[in-house]
Design goal:
This protein is mainly alpha-helical and 132 residues long. The protein has a single domain (3-130), classed as Up-down Bundle (Four Helix Bundle (Hemerythrin (Met), subunit A)), CATH 1.20.120. The protein has helices at 3-26, 33-60, 69-78, 85-98, 104-130.
């Protein structure tokens, strides 16, 4: 087992733990503003772990041009590691915007998007890698 192989497996381990935390946060009924901020922060962490897991796995498989989130997502879609490539690109855009979310209406909108769209997408990726 080489270092790249170990790296994606370590990243998968961290992604598993982080997804549990995001699931618990999303299970909070009627979260207040501080809890919504926590959900958004956990989403950011999981989005980062997800694309880096994909990157590390692709590098272990011999792909070299996957250094950025967009290139990793596009390559993963091309080789059918992920489906819904367009939604993955939206996830990346949303992740980049969340650090600039300061009002409650935007936080609520983001929390719902995370719960209804992005969490299932991240969970599908996690399930796929856990079955490898």
């Amino acid at each position: 087992m080489n270092n790249e192989d170990v790296r994606w497996r370590q990243r998968l381990h961290n992604f598993n733990k982080a997804m549990v935390h995001l699931q618990h946060a999303l299970d909070i009924p009627a979260p207040d503003m501080v809890q919504k901020a926590g959900i958004i922060q956990l989403f950011e962490m999981n989005a980062e772990l997800a694309w880096k897991l994909i990157k590390d796995f692709l590098e272990a498989e011999g792909f070299n041009d996957v250094k950025t989130p967009r290139s990793a997502i596009k390559t993963a879609f091309e080789v059918q590691i992920i489906t819904d490539g367009y939604i993955w690109l939206e996830l990346l855009d949303s992740r980049n915007l969340t650090s600039h979310t300061y009002d409650e209406a935007k936080a609520t909108e983001m929390e719902l998007l995370i719960a209804n769209t992005y969490f299932p997408l991240l969970q599908n990726l996690l399930d796929s890698f856990n079955s490898r």
